[in-house]
Amino acid sequence: MSQRKGRYQNRTEILQGTLDMLILQTLQWAPRHGYALSKAIRTNSGEILKVDTGSLYPALHRLERKGWIAAEWKASELGPRLRVYHLTKAGKRQLMSERSRWRRLTAAIAGILDPAQKENAP
Amino acid sequence: MKWTLRRRKQRNAELRQEIQAHLLLAEREGIESGQTEKEARHSARREFGNVAIAEEVTRDMWGWRWAADFLQDLRYAIRSFRQYPGFVAVALLALALGTGATTLMFSLVSGVLLKPLPYPQPDRLVAVNGHTEGWNAKIYGEQKLAYLDFLDCQRDSHSLDMAALVYNSGTLSAPGDPQYVDYFEISPELFSVLRVPLALGRAFLPEEDKIGAAPVAILGYSFWQRRFDASAKVLGSSIVLEQKRYTIVGVAPAGLRLYGNEPEVYTPLGQDPAGYLHSRAAQPVHVVGRLRPGARVEQAQAEVALTGSRLAAAFADTNKGRSLQVKRLRPPVDDVVGSTLWLLLGAVGLVLSIACANVASLMLARAISRERELAMRVALGASRGRLVRQCLTESALLSLVGGILGVLLANGGLHPFLAFWPGDLPRAEEVQLDWRVLLFAIAVSLLTSVFFGLAPAWRAPVREVEQILRVGARTVTAGARRLHSAFVVSEMALAIVLLVAAGMLGRTLLHASSLDPGLDIRNLLVMRVGLSPATLADPAKIPAAWEDVIARAKRVPGVESATAVDIVPMREGNNQLGYWTSADVPPQNRQPVVLASSATPEYLKVMGMPLLEGRFFDDHDRMRSEPVIVVDDVLAKSAFPGQDALGKNLWIPDMPCVQATQTFVECSTPYKIVGVVGHVRYWGLAGDDQAQVRAQLYYPFAQVAPPFLTRWSQLMSIAVRTSVPPLTVVWPLRRALRGAAGDQVLYQVHTMEQLAHDSLALERFLLLLFGIFAALALLLACIGIYGVLAYLTGRRVPEIGLRMAIGASPSDVTRLVLRQSLGMIFLGLGIGTAAAVAAGRILERLVEGMQPIALSTFMIMIPFLVLAAMLASLVPARRASRVDPMNALRQE
Which end of chain A is least crowded, N or C, by CB within 10 Å? Predict the structure, then answer.
């Protein structure tokens, strides 16, 4: 039991920072339920990023516990009740800071991968 | 808990719904894009992955996992306990006895020593005391205030509301039979300062607090219930106290005890014209104060100190060198009670430790026998922390149930125990199982669970998993054996401490009962006599009244001789005076102190005391003749070392001086020693040797000056020597001494044998308790030894089988097992003896009259203990010797 748990935690850890940010970013435009969220991330990334559902729901519940997103049950025309998540104020702030962190990180990585570009810069 | 569980169930359902919705949506999309229903369902599932794992990981995010695990642990613990009912019963019994006794003792400590005073906002209450240079507080206690000084303080203070109280006693002659009662003279503010409402009626009014005001009284609650059947009609009726008729205006609240006792009556202090209340030279007034809102103790202290120094300057002849102090008001509990309670709490603490060690070794034995099971669980993926938690859950469950049983035990035992306490336990009415006690009990049982739960838990997962699974749990490692031995050794050591303590107490009792009290205690009856209030009011009549009492007592059939005396050996109440051997008397705190007692000439004969030198006083020692005293050999030796005391003089400033025309004047007349008598064990058989003040002197009652006679007569007792069993003359004496007005009463009637017996009550009580504790400790230790040995030999069955197969005889095997147990027993003895010597020192310091620890105590107790321990190990040893070698080897 604990070993299984350990394996899954590792897998979420690799994605954790980015997955949280992607979820927050995607919810910024409109509230969505879990399935719509995973679909949106896949479509918006041009089918490159595929969210592992085994990580999606733990991530959603973790973000909810941290107060960055909130959820409510909504009836849908499709049939079953859906748990719809939306961004909270704290979540918006968190998204801002994650985005700036991400920008710094990618700039730093780009600098390492392609040093010439940096030297040529004005 | 229940709420959390319901929430959790609901959230589980919601999570499932959420995931099902996800799958459903994925499936629909699949169908829309042209898949068959079956294909769509499968691909949705495939894409999602393992639903159960996703659910579990998500649940972890809620942070409730510990609760679920805890429930699981709990269920598991209960299931595993059910398999070993014997183990659980022994462990619970040990824990219940241990925590029960500790809880009981702690509720006494809590109620008597720790609880604040039973008034609203007790931390705002203070006492105001005096302090005069040279005052010997060790012997005389805190100095109180003069009434006039109190009035000045009360008027000047801005930070304190103050009330005064004077303890008094006298004869209540109506309604009903005359009776000697305690009464408090109080200032009208007392009840409002304490903030306690009266049970009935009203408090005294300020205008009633003046000389000449209409006499009013308030009844004590118990007295009202006893004497007036708790009738509300009592208001407006009257009582006659010390010949004065008082109208009852109120009834004090139930259980109001100040300075230890509940008085029968309260009267207004300001109405009393007595001289000692209106002189600043006498300080009879207890002062309690309550800090006004916003005021601080330091402020009150500064104010009162200022008043004190002002008074010292203004009234130099009476107040010189006297300062006033504010202290927090503390419950009136003396040191002996305090040290006895802590001592007993320590002793039950030892019993609890033994119980814990016992349960710990049982738990450990169980943990080792479960090693295979635990190893299996590790192999299946249980983490180390999880197993530690499992072990702790089991021990916590055990100790909590044990603790609950213990609290029930303590609850049931509390009242019998209080009834059993020797003499009066101060604040006994405050003792109950309250939240502090429950908190304490819970803390104790949780601590014990950690104590005995950790050992097995630490051990459990450290073993090499494969090795255990391969070899099986058939052998005992050296480490496990050492840990087991450690428990047995500590149990033995603790048991010895208690056994030796019990032995010391027993020896002390034996020694004390064989001591010579210094007088003939058989056929001797002592009792206080309250003279008729009419006589007491007129000092001129008093000497004749006492002569009349003695003469009437002598005429009662069965009475051989009778005497009057003010203080009686081994009974409460004494008179301690400073003395000096020349006229140049130093300040009070540098004077040696002596117990002084005034008596009539027959005293020596009635008490059966030996005359060593000179003479006792006789009828010729009158008011006009030379002042004489008789001393005991202790005083003769300490005041005049190496000389003959006979014919020497003593200067005693506080004597009721022969020439005195008023009270509270220093007596400068020398007293001539005319005789030396034997020492009497005034402080009781056991306590006298270590008492602070042992020296004694006797002076003739006939030489007590008239101004003192009233006060002295209020305290006088008579002693009669009888030719028949002394209690048979009590009723004839009561009738014979009633006096002309029928209002002379006898009270506090004791036989001297009873007083001597009671003087050892504390020692006897402690002996009994320590005896019980020691027996309990011994029993627990024996159970522990038995359990451990049975377990250890059980594990060695294959080894023993092998030994027998290659030729060992059954007696060889018995010896093998006994040798193992003897090793543990003797190590325990060694450690225990050292600990017992240390504990003996503590006991010597805390219990008066304690005999020092003796070799003989060890000589008796140790063989006793070894024998018991050997008996406990014999059973497993015999069982081991009956092992069938073939069976044992086949088991492997």
Answer: C
